[in-house]
TrEMBL record:
It is a multi-pass membrane protein. Keywords: Cell membrane, Coiled coil, Membrane, Transmembrane, Transmembrane helix. It is found in: Cell membrane. It comes from Autumnicola psychrophila. Residues 297-334 form a coiled coil. Its main location: membrane. This is YihY/virulence factor BrkB family protein. The chain crosses the membrane at residues 31-54, 94-114, 135-165, 177-201, 213-236, 248-269. It comes from the Bacteria.
């Protein structure tokens, strides 16, 4: 047992060192910026898909309540208003098609940036993209949106079943009903969050990796996410960091929430890398990726050629300057003789 704890502690330290080297703060800020524009589109798609089964207003209210538990009521209402204002309405076929395209493009923007961050963590670089690769990346990102929708659909179904079971148990053991349902809800939420993070680690980067390998990192990420959710909620509730921004406070809170969540996600991904190295798991680029060092070497070679050209220009300018100086000195000597 002690040996396992030492190994786990070493993996945590190595993951932190790698996490700190990969500029997590800048990348988290970039994704938070994209998330601000992607969230309304993402929520609209999820509400449309899941709302087909449970009703749009019910699902939208459920999402608003969940977001409210993370970052407060005002930011949740702001997102709800953005979703309501951006929702597709009846119109011409061309307008609807264009609107759907804008929604898909907006909803996938955050996952597209997240894919680049995951590649960087695994030291993988996407090969030079063509139009087909760009469409595939967007399709994978859209797939993540539908995964979220599917998880929410299953979550709502299980919540309904738990409610029925709760009523039945309450008839026989009213004192333990609340505790049992609370434990069941926590376990189910933890399982869903873990699967979502595992899907991100498995599907987004351009690598071949086993689901088993991603689950360990995803479980740690889910644990840190739940702890972070409590700490972030406590921090927002006590310090109110967005109070100085007035009317823009809701936007600031959304950015901060996504920013801190991305930092946790990146650390979980780094832990997955360290775990794969510890277990000697075979992780290799897929056909769309290659080791980042190849592109780094190409950049260095291009930089070397650029510096060589710049040196040639400087040498030419210096030679011209020396020639002019010699001509001037020669001319001054002739003037002195005369």
């Amino acid at each position: 047992m002690l040996k396992l704890l030492k190994i786990f502690w070493k993996l945590l330290k190595d993951a932190f060192a790698s996490w700190n080297r990969n500029e997590p703060y800048a990348r988290a800020a970039t994704i938070a910026y994209y998330a601000l524009f992607s969230l309304p589109s993402l929520i609209i798609i999820v509400v449309t898909v899941v709302g087909y089964f449970f009703g749009r207003e019910f699902v939208q209210g459920k999402i608003t309540n969940e977001i409210s538990s993370f970052i407060g009521e005002d930011p949740a209402k702001a997102i709800e208003n953005m979703v309501s204002n951006a929702a597709l309405t009846e119109g011409s076929t061309l307008a609807i098609i264009f609107g759907v395209g804008v929604l898909i493009f907006g909803a996938t923007g955050m996952f597209f940036q997240l894919k680049m961050a995951m590649n960087n963590i695994w030291n993988i670089a996407a090969k030079k993209a063509n139009f087909g690769k760009l469409l595939l990346d967007r399709a994978v990102s859209l797939g993540m949106v539908f995964v979220i929708g599917l998880l929410m659909l299953v979550s709502l179904i299980i919540s309904a079943l738990l409610s029925i079971i709760k009523d039945q148990i309450h008839l026989y053991a009213p004192n333990v009903t609340g505790f049992m349902v609370g434990v069941a809800n926590f376990c189910i939420s933890f399982a869903f969050i873990t699967f979502l993070f595992a899907a991100i680690f498995k599907l987004l980067p351009d690598i071949h990796i086993k689901w088993r390998t991603t689950l360990y990192g995803a479980a740690l990420t889910a644990t840190l996410f739940i702890i972070g959710e409590f700490l972030i909620g406590f921090y927002f509730g006590q310090s109110n960091p967005a109070s100085v921004y007035g009317g823009a406070s809701s936007v600031v809170l959304i950015l901060l929430w996504v920013y801190y969540t991305c930092l946790i996600l990146f650390y979980g991904a780094e832990f997955t890398v360290q775990y794969a190295l510890h277990k000697n798991e075979r992780v290799e680029p897929n056909k769309f990726g290659e080791p980042a060092i190849y592109q780094e070497m190409e950049k260095l070679e291009a930089k070397r050629l650029q510096l060589k050209e710049e040196k040639a220009i400087i040498d030419t300018l210096k030679s011209n300057l020396d020639f002019r100086r010699e001509e001037k000195e020669k001319s001054d000597k002739e003037k002195k003789k005369t």
